[in-house]
UniProtKB/TrEMBL annotation:
Its cofactor is pyridoxal 5'-phosphate. Belongs to the threonine synthase family. This is THNS1 protein. It comes from Polypterus senegalus. The gene is Thnsl1. CDD domains: SK, Thr-synth_2. GO terms for biological process: amino acid biosynthetic process. The lineage of its organism: Eukaryota, Metazoa, Chordata, Craniata, Vertebrata. One of its GO terms (cellular component) is cytoplasm. PROSITE patterns: DEHYDRATASE_SER_THR. Residues 224-306 form the Threonine synthase N-terminal domain.
């Protein structure tokens, strides 16, 4: 049995704006950007000021060595808790005290000694057991910045063996050291402000450089810029700001102003053995400034997002399909599509980012999957957050599958609503962009109802960010399964409509995943294929074709703008000019260097409806696995374009049951039921892989005999629907 420890975590988390004001009131933002020269180290020490730098981690993590080096580099006094606090307080060695009082009493004695200790402006190496005592850690953290040395347990075991240490505090005779190290991790993760992920084989100097780099980041601010403006032309925006705003005021999309998220090979090696939520936590910490979202709060969000609401414990598993092709199953969330991967997390981040006194309306256009995922994600918020956040979803009335429509309209909580529009997805998206860019309408909502608009589409950076995680995780899973070794290249093939999934894979490469080619797969709405091949984006005389893969029935792809900004190395003037031309002339052509860069990194292809159906039939016949139509589009294109020299990961973006009629036709089932639930039963009788999706079945049962509202494709009519919903939702709450 392990010694029973009860973790206690403070409920008072300092809000971002107040913290930032306090932090930067005495900090210069312009900290050096290179190799911590003497002057820069002095400046870093001045930022720490009268705070202490507390280094925590398990025994054998190297806290004392790192603390000494950091103290020397920063010119700050170094204190080792064991040697300089505990042994002086007890007048005996720590080991003797442990032997005399035993493990459980030792923790209390250790905590009592720390409660009587105070210091200012020091680097302090905490003992491995300090974080197990909540009261003393509250005391120490009250005037400190906590740095957690996250070292792999196997590395620690090797170090302990070399030091001939065979027992640590809390370890009993029937408990191994490996078990107690694993058990203790939960306590270290309750206290840190900064996590230093120590790679396998990192030297003490390597670890110290990481600590200094992370401290530098902590005292800097990370801002975002618009794809259409020079950084100096818009006010500084932080992560929480752009999460709430969604769209930049100039009509552009927000992107990070700088890129410093790349992981080392040793760090990637650490992530291989981690679970999906653990990987997500590390990667999101690299991408979200700890002042914007406290990492401990972020951890709670991640655990909630990727927990019991997913049908598969691996969350986004990799499955071998045929030959060198692998599918990443992104449909195990509550609404059976890849949109859950972001939208189980993003609503929590959104609620964290807005002030408690503000009301927000989330406006969403959906081509099918986003709608139900947004409604489900925001329905998981606590009641207090639901009182100040409402969701309105617009979907093309005849442009999504019957099952998708039933899913979307099955959500009937007071703060959410879905409205069908007699048009296509592009109109729904255009209508929402018009409302966002209409100052009079926004002013009216703010004045009359105290409501601001935001979005949960992938134009919102906080929605796009979690998608980067699963592309990274796919690569790590291939290593874990022995398919590739760390550093080997892969290709990815993604059914692409609004371009967020595709773009997130490119950001995964910027973090260090060696993706060789990004393959863009389209159906007969192949404007993106033409653009990738020619550099011409031409919407003139383009007619949207309704297909069996509605999520990619899109002509105007929002995230293409971010793609051009990324591929052109941040050329905002180019993006501004191109999108000004698109607005006025409905087409643009990228310069030759940009086209060459696209061709160097990307491939693109499309397939017809019949080819898509043939692929579904062929794969099921050979493997017993049913692809949904979007994944079948990607598989068809991958067959044509992928060279076979490395594995290709195909994004499987939805469970096949969401598109039961198309799947049953593809499998040549003769008698097709008109009832969606019966259609799912017909598929289930084939005993296919993957297995049936229970939450999807439940949502269809809820939606039986439910009616929903439909409006005409007119901007003014849509505006009236929005105002009506806001009035009914927020005025009712006032009453």
């Amino acid at each position: 049995m392990l010694i029973r420890m009860i973790p206690v975590l403070s409920n008072s988390v300092t809000k971002v704006l107040h913290f930032r004001k306090r932090l930067f009131s005495r900090c210069s933002i312009n900290i050096i950007t290179s190799t911590f020269r003497k002057a820069s180290l002095s400046k870093l020490a001045s930022h720490i000021g009268e705070k202490n730098l507390l280094i925590i981690g398990p025994p054998g993590a190297g806290k004392t060595t790192a603390g000494r080096i950091i103290g020397q580099k920063l010119g700050l006094p170094f204190i080792d808790v064991d040697d300089d606090v505990l042994e002086k307080a007890w007048d005996m060695p720590v080991s003797q005290k442990l032997s005399e009082v035993g493990g459980e009493r030792f923790l209390e004695e250790e905590g009592k000694a720390l409660l009587n200790f105070s210091s200012l402006g020091c680097v302090i190496s905490m003992s491995g057991s300090n974080p197990l005592h909540p009261a003393s850690m509250h005391h120490m953290k009250g005037n400190g910045i906590v740095v957690y040395l996250d070292v792999d347990n196997e590395d620690i075991m090797r170090r302990m063996e070399k030091m001939k240490v065979d027992r640590i505090v809390g370890q009993t005779s029937n408990c191994s050291m490996r078990d107690i190290l694993r058990y203790r991790q939960q306590f270290y993760r309750q206290w840190f402000d900064l996590r230093v992920l120590c790679g396998t084989g990192d030297t003490a100097e390597d670890v110290c450089e990481k600590i200094l780099k992370d401290l530098k980041r902590y005292f800097e601010c990370e801002t975002f810029v618009s794809t259409r403006s020079a950084p100096s032309e818009i006010p500084q925006k932080y992560f929480c700001d752009i999460t709430v705003e969604g769209l930049a005021p100039d009509g552009g999309l927000y992107v990070p102003s700088k890129d410093d998220t790349r992981l080392s090979a040793g760090e990637w090696q650490r992530l291989i053995g981690m679970s999906f939520p653990e990987r997500a936590q590390v990667l999101l910490e690299k991408s979200i400034h700890p002042v914007d979202v406290n990492p401990i709060q972020l951890m709670k969000m991640v655990e909630k997002a990727y927990g019991k609401n997913f049908n598969c414990s691996k969350v986004a598993p990799i499955r071998h399909l045929v030959d060198d092709q692998y599918v990443q199953e992104l449909f195990h969330g509550p609404t059976a599509s890849f949109k859950d991967m972001a939208l189980q997390l993003m609503p929590q981040i959104f609620a964290y980012s807005i002030p408690q006194t503000c009301n927000h309306l989330i406006l969403v256009a959906t081509s099918g999957d986003t709608g139900s995922a947004v409604l489900d994600g925001f329905s998981m918020l606590c009641n207090a957050d639901k009182q100040r956040i409402a969701v309105l979803v617009l979907f093309p009335e005849n442009g999504i599958s019957p099952i998708q429509k039933k899913q979307i309209t099955s959500y009937r909580q007071e703060n959410v609503k879905a409205v069908g529009v007699n048009s296509d997805f592009d109109f729904c998206q255009k209508a929402i962009k018009h409302l966002f860019s209409n100052p009079a309408f926004n002013g009216f909502l703010a004045t009359e109802y105290g409501v601001s608009l935001s979005t949960a589409n992938s134009i919102n950076w906080a929605r796009l960010l979690p998608q980067i995680v699963y592309h990274c995780s796919a690569y790590l899973d291939l290593i874990d399964q022995g398919v590739i070794s760390l550093g080997d290249p892969i290709d990815v093939c993604i059914p692409t409509g609004n371009f967020g999934n595709f773009l997130s894979a490119m950001y995964a490469k910027k973090m260090g995943i060696p993706i060789r080619k990004f393959i863009c797969a389209s159906n007969q709405n192949n404007v993106l294929t033409d653009f990738m091949k020619t550099g011409v984006y031409d919407l003139r005389n383009r007619k949207l074709h309704i297909s069996a893969s509605p999520a990619i029935d899109i002509l105007k792809s929002s995230n293409l703008e971010r793609f051009i900004h990324l591929i052109s190395k941040g050329d905002w003037q180019l993006v501004q000019d191109l999108y000004s031309q698109l607005d006025s002339q409905n087409h643009f052509i990228v310069p030759k260097p940009v086209l060459e860069s696209i061709r160097e990194n990307c491939l693109a292809g499309w397939c017809s409806e019949n080819e898509c159906f043939a692929t579904i039939h062929s794969v099921f016949t050979k493997t017993g696995y049913i692809l949904d139509p979007h994944t079948a589009v990607a598989k068809t294109v991958a067959d044509r374009l992928q060279g076979g020299t490395c594995p290709v990961v195909i994004s499987s973006t939805a469970h096949h049951a969401k598109f039961a009629p198309a799947v049953l036709r593809s499998l040549m089932v003769k008698e097709l039921s008109s009832c969606p639930l019966d259609q799912l039963q017909q598929i289930h009788s084939l005993n296919p892989l993957p297995v049936s999706h229970k939450p999807l079945m439940d949502s269809l049962r809820r939606a039986e005999n439910m009616e929903h509202e439909v409006c005409e494709a007119d901007i003014e009519t849509v505006s009236e629907k929005v105002e009506e919903f806001v009035h009914n939702t927020f005025m009712r709450q006032r009453v």
